[in-house]
């Protein structure tokens, strides 16, 4: 990845700056022109035929090429107002040659001194800053797109987007970006290799593009190149064709990325000698593109150590397994294809692959991906049921294979998912297969569903170890309907997962239930200082296979949005019911929940707070208490090159009843403090401090429980990213944990160096 920034070298725009009155009239006039001439809504790509007229990537839109490329403006605002012409002008130009597509953007701003342009790491663009978003749909399906968001500093986020599942910023693409300032705003130039985009070179349908502009000032402004409205359930339906792209390249491309990881560490357990360990590992990732639509990935002896730590989660008072996001590079190619109504595929279940291979193809009519790895194990296998999640040790090697195909036919897409986990040493298998569909009936209405069938012979024995046993089968099915209108929205879902269903390559923390959900919202629009006010009603019932209620939930709430990007959401749950074990008591609870998010300014860029109070269930004691849940988060930028992100979460339960009334049964707290110092666009120093603590009073429990446990991690990492695939990291991680009476104090320290260089 190459990033050039001439941000503070302000240069005059090549046209006279408009007067304040013209700045307001121009987008309105252009919006009316586009409405009267729909053909003008398309983007026009200029083909560079003279090598002497190339694009100098400096962020300043003054090359001769841009004088010949058509400027596309006429943006529309969807926030804070909806369905009106944007109040500021944005221009987009597109050009291309035999190797690259170039995009130039000019973002006019009547108050350029208020532009928010902090440094940022990859995939950390957020709504509290100025940025441009590109949604590139080379298949012209209006269902999926590659995304690139970038701010005036050159910081960026990339990934994929689908109408049904939103954005996935896990995948990384190769492209170059440069940004600059001019007297009336900021500008950017992007150079995107065609090898970074999956497309069919000879397809007749033009590519589609949607451009979004975000500005956060007194409030948050969102503007689009298409007439996006808040009542739509199909964002990409507002993308427009890119005319003029022809003769695009195809043919063989490849890259190889060796990686070297060196570690040295210590492991100290109280009462035992200290263990020293060190190793040096060399791995290889290979990427081959036999044509413009196909990617083949392979990895040998990969190192899957994570540079970024998983955030601590409150887990002490929960019955079910917790989902963890995938962050390992090999699994990210085509990861958006795995997103279906159920989490049928979760690559985090592949704990320690010795090697892996993947085939991915995208074209106008279908998407296909197949991934297989030899997993050495070492993790956990979820064994879910209706009331909790059990686990089995992954003390085995296995072959894990997942596949997904999606066929697109206009507003209808049909998919099929298949997974197989075969344990070595004849210890059985788990297999899942089933279809799914999405029907975008209109811009406002969507129907989707999925059916999965499983077969399993890898069964837990009396000790909880997976061995070959009797074949069991199961099913999982879901059907969802949603509709978004200007004045109202509605959503309904029915879901059933049988007792015998299991997906060892997916994420199912609960099975053996039937769930019905309905939700309705009344959109009241602007009310006084509020830009939006919605009232909503939510109802759901989840029952086990015998018909006994697990959850009965009735919620009324209000959501509102105001200045400073403030969002406030409050929910009242006056009389809900929950059962925590089979044949157990059905507890009645009453709770109030609220959350507020805001972007106050440059220094306090983002703040979030969440609070739940009322009846809480003590899962370990299977009894009703009083308590709550609290969460605080902030993003602080005292300088544009320095940021801090503190997060604090806590949950607690106090007893109810004669013997425990008012006494604290359970407390859990988790703290994360993240600090990032940006030395430049390519170099950062990152610090993460994590602490978590769980505490119970054993005297208040009938069964033996852990009285107190604590864990903590401190991590320092210096990272240098030259380009995609060429990076260096040096870091130290210090971890400790202790559960008095159950697990002795343990201290683990590690120093590591990780190098990768793409050939």
From TrEMBL:
GO terms for biological process: carbohydrate catabolic process. Residues 1-41 form the signal peptide. Gene3D superfamilies: 2.60.40.1190. Keywords: Signal. Transmembrane segments: none annotated. Residues 275-339 form the DUF5916 domain. Residues 57-218 form the Carbohydrate-binding domain. The keyword Signal applies. The keyword Signal applies. SUPFAM superfamilies: CBD9-like. GO terms for molecular function: carbohydrate binding; hydrolase activity, hydrolyzing O-glycosyl compounds. It holds the Pfam family CBM9_1. InterPro entries: Carb-bd_dom_fam9, DUF5916. It comes from the Bacteria. This is Uncharacterized protein. It comes from Massilia glaciei. The lineage of its organism: Bacteria, Pseudomonadati, Pseudomonadota, Betaproteobacteria, Burkholderiales.
């Amino acid at each position: 990845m190459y990033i050039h920034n001439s941000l503070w070298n302000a240069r005059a725009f090549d046209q006279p700056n408009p007067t304040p009155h013209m700045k307001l009239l121009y987008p309105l006039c252009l919006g009316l022109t586009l409405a009267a001439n729909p053909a003008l809504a398309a983007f026009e790509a200029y083909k560079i035929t003279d090598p002497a007229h190339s694009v100098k990537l400096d962020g300043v839109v003054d090359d001769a090429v841009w004088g010949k490329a058509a400027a596309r403006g006429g943006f529309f605002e969807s926030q804070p107002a909806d369905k009106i012409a944007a109040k500021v002008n944005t221009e987009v130009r597109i050009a291309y040659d035999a190797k690259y597509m170039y995009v130039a953007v000019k973002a006019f701003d009547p108050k350029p001194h208020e532009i928010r342009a902090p440094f940022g790491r990859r995939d950390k663009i957020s709504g509290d800053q100025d940025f441009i978003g590109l949604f590139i749909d080379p298949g012209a399906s209006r269902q999926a797109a590659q995304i690139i968001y970038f701010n005036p500093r050159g910081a960026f986020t990339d990934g994929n987007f689908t109408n049904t599942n939103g954005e996935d910023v896990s995948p990384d693409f190769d492209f170059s970006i440069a940004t600059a300032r001019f007297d009336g705003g900021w500008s950017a130039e992007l150079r995107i290799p065609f090898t970074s985009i999956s497309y069919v070179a000879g397809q007749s349908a033009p590519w589609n593009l949607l451009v979004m502009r975000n500005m956060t000032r007194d409030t948050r402004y969102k503007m689009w190149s298409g007439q996006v409205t808040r009542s739509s359930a199909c964002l990409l339906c507002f993308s427009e064709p890119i005319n003029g792209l022809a003769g695009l390249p195809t043919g063989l491309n490849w890259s190889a990325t060796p990686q070297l990881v060196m570690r040295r560490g210590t492991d100290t357990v109280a009462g035992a000698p200290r263990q020293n360990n060190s190793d040096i590992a060399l791995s290889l990732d290979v990427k081959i593109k036999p044509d413009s639509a196909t990617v083949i990935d392979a990895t040998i002896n990969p190192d899957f150590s994570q540079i970024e730590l998983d955030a601590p989660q409150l887990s002490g008072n929960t019955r079910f397994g917790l989902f963890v996001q995938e962050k390992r590079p090999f699994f990210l190619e085509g990861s958006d294809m795995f997103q279906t109504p159920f989490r049928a595929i979760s690559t985090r279940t592949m704990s320690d692959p010795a090697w892996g291979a993947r085939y991915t193809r995208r074209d106008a009519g279908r998407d296909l991906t197949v991934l297989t790895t030899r997993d050495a194990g070492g993790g956990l296998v979820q064994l879910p049921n209706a009331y909790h999640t059990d686990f089995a040790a992954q003390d085995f090697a296995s072959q894990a294979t997942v596949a997904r195909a999606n066929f697109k036919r206009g507003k209808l897409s049909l998919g099929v998912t298949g997974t197989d986990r075969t344990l070595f040493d004849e210890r059985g298998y788990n297999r899942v297969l089933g279809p799914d569909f999405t029907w975008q009936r209109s811009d406002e209405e969507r129907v989707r569903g999925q059916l999965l069938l499983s077969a399993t012979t890898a069964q837990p024995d009396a000790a909880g170890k997976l061995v070959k046993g009797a074949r069991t089968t199961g099913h999982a099915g879901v059907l969802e309907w949603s509709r978004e209108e200007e004045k109202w929205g509605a959503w309904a879902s029915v879901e059933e997962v049988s007792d015998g269903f299991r997906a060892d390559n997916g994420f199912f923390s609960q099975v053996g239930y039937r769930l019905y959900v309905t939700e309705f919202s009344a959109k009241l629009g602007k009310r006084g200082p509020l830009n939006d006010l919605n009232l909503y009603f939510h109802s759901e019932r989840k029952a086990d296979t015998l018909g006994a209620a697990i959850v009965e939930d009735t919620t009324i709430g209000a959501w509102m949005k105001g200045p400073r990007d403030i969002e406030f959401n409050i929910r009242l749950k006056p009389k809900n019911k929950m059962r925590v074990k089979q044949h157990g008591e059905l507890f009645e609870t009453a709770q109030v929940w609220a959350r507020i998010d805001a972007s106050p300014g440059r220094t306090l860029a983002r703040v979030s707070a969440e609070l739940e109070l009322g009846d809480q269930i003590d899962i370990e004691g299977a009894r009703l208490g009083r308590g709550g849940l609290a969460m605080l988060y902030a993003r602080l930028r005292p300088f544009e090159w320095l940021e801090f992100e503190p997060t604090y979460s806590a949950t607690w339960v106090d007893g109810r009843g004669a013997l425990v009334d008012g006494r604290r049964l359970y407390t859990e707290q988790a703290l994360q403090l993240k600090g990032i110092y940006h030395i430049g666009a390519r170099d950062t120093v990152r610090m993460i401090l994590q602490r978590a603590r769980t505490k119970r009073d054993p005297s208040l429990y009938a069964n033996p429980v852990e009285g107190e446990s604590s864990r903590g991690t401190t991590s320092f990492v210096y990272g240098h990213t030259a380009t995609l695939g060429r990076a260096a990291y040096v870091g130290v991680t210090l971890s400790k944990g202790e559960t008095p009476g159950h697990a002795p104090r343990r201290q683990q320290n590690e120093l590591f160096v990780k190098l990768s260089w793409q050939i």
